[in-house]
């Protein structure tokens, strides 16, 4: 599935239309609170401008609904922060395909950078509109996809734009190339034992992932609130725990299919007040024996030990979803133990995006794993075995 990268294309004197993920968090004063996504795009941007190319950057930010408050979703703060990081001026267009964007794109000199306004300010983006895509495509000589987090979507900038640029170079940036290398190649030909760790709240969010990985992995470890739905399926007591009662039959099917491959917690750390975890009554009980007035909030210490031992011997680890309420000590203990075991192992370790990426980062293990994915939904879709039109239509290496 290797794709041609931006480094393999001659960009000198050419306009490169690059889809990035500048969907950064902003506070009420339009100040960026975490610029990581902008920083992660720098290698691909620099690859172009350092070789005499011109970059036109396009991204979405938030979910503008055209209700009069769209200004808070402007990409202008991202453009300003990019200028700081690049230590050079960055132009900003107040529209996407209107007069300002086309005029500024036409005046770019070699090494210049232009950021277009939020793609989702134009209804054509979410609709995958070919006319909107054609106007974006007309600005450039090269298309580059460096937005893995939206690779599973069919937005205009992801699919219709590269379709409209058929015959011109259509490549991946550094981020997408790395995601493909880890998430696709490691899973299609993993070193074994291959262990998957799946957490989070809902079985329904991970059905296809569990199904797919049961056919590929040697062991699938289950944690998080989804474990309580499996526990209910086994006739266990789950107290006030978060469960999906309508998914119990499905959990039974997955248990039957998984057999010994599917490992569930053997104990649970419970509490009686989610709103006051630090001060509430807490106890560790055997799995399936949660008191009526309590809810499961983390895997227990015995489970953490068993899981850590399994991870220690793994050669490939994929982790998506925390083991418990990792933001609130002491219910971060299970996620911490798993993160430590992954960091200590000599496996190829791939952390899916979203909460598991946040947990690994928050707990300080991000530098001790092989790869932390930049896309929660996209990494899940790839773990499900889904194909992405946004990637398939790009040039082969």
UniProtKB/TrEMBL annotation:
According to UniProt, the reaction catalysed is:
(2R)-3-phosphoglycerate + ATP = (2R)-3-phospho-glyceroyl phosphate + ADP
Q: Which residues bind (2R)-3-phosphoglycerate?
A: 37, 120, 153
Protein location: Cytoplasm
Pathway it acts in?
A: Carbohydrate degradation; glycolysis; pyruvate from D-glyceraldehyde 3-phosphate: step 2/5
Query: Which UniProt keywords are given for this protein, alphabetically ordered?
Result: ATP-binding, Cytoplasm, Glycolysis, Kinase, Nucleotide-binding, Transferase
Task: Identify one Gene Ontology CC term for this UniProt entry.
Answer: cytosol
Q: Which BP terms from GO are recorded?
A: gluconeogenesis; glycolytic process
Q: Tell me the InterPro entries matching this sequence.
A: Phosphoglycerate_kinase (IPR001576), Phosphoglycerate_kinase_CS (IPR015911), Phosphoglycerate_kinase_N (IPR015824), Phosphoglycerate_kinase_sf (IPR036043)
Which positions in this protein are listed as binding substrate?
21-23, 37, 60-63, 120, 153
EC number from the UniProt entry: 2.7.2.3
The GO terms describing molecular function are:
ADP binding; ATP binding; phosphoglycerate kinase activity
- Among the Pfam families in the record, one is PGK
Q: Which residues bind ATP?
A: 206, 296, 327, 353-356
Transmembrane stretches, start-end: none
Please describe the quaternary structure of this protein: Monomer.
What family does the entry list? Belongs to the phosphoglycerate kinase family.
Its name, as the record gives it, is: Phosphoglycerate kinase
Organism, by scientific name, is Rhodopirellula maiorica SM1
């Amino acid at each position: 599935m290797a794709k041609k990268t931006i480094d393999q294309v001659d960009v000198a004197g050419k306009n490169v239309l690059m889809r990035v993920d500048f969907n950064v968090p902003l506070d009420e004063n339009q100040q960026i609170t975490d610029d990581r996504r902008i920083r992660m795009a720098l290698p691909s941007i620099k690859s172009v401008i350092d070789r005499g190319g011109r970059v036109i950057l396009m991204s979405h930010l938030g979910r503008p609904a055209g209700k009069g408050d769209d200004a808070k979703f402007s990409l202008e703060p991202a453009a300003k922060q990019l200028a700081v990081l690049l230590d050079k001026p960055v132009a900003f267009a107040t529209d996407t395909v209107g007069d300002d964007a086309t005029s500024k794109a036409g005046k770019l000199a070699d090494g210049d950078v232009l950021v277009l306004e939020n793609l989702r300010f134009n209804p054509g983006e979410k609709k995958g509109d070919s006319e909107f895509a054609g106007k974006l495509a007309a600005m450039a000589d090269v298309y580059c996809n460096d937005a893995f987090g939206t690779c599973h979507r069919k937005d205009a900038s992801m699919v219709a734009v590269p379709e409209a640029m058929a015959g011109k170079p259509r490549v991946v940036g550094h981020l997408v190339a790395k995601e493909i290398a880890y998430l696709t190649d490691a899973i299609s030909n993993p070193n074994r034992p291959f262990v998957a760790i799946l957490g989070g709240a809902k079985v329904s969010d991970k059905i296809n992932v569990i199904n797919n990985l049961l056919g590929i992995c040697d062991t699938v470890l289950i944690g998080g609130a989804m474990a309580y739905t499996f526990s209910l399926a086994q006739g266990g007591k789950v107290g006030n725990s978060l469960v999906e009662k309508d998914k119990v039959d499905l959990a039974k099917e997955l248990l039957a299919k998984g057999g010994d491959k599917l490992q569930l917690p053997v104990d649970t750390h419970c509490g009686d007040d989610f709103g006051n975890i630090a001060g509430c009554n807490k106890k560790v009980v055997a799995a399936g024996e949660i008191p009526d007035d309590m809810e499961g909030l983390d895997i227990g210490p015995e489970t953490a030990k068993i899981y850590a031992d399994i991870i220690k011997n793994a050669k490939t680890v994929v982790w998506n979803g925390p083991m418990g309420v990792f933001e609130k000590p002491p219910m971060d203990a299970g996620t911490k133990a798993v993160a430590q075991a992954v960091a200590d192992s000599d496996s190829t370790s791939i952390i899916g995006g979203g909460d598991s990426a946040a947990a690994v980062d928050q707990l300080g293990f991000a530098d001790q794993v092989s790869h932390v994915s930049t896309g929660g939904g996209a990494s899940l879709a790839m773990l499900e075995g889904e194909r992405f039109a946004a990637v398939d239509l790009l040039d082969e290496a």
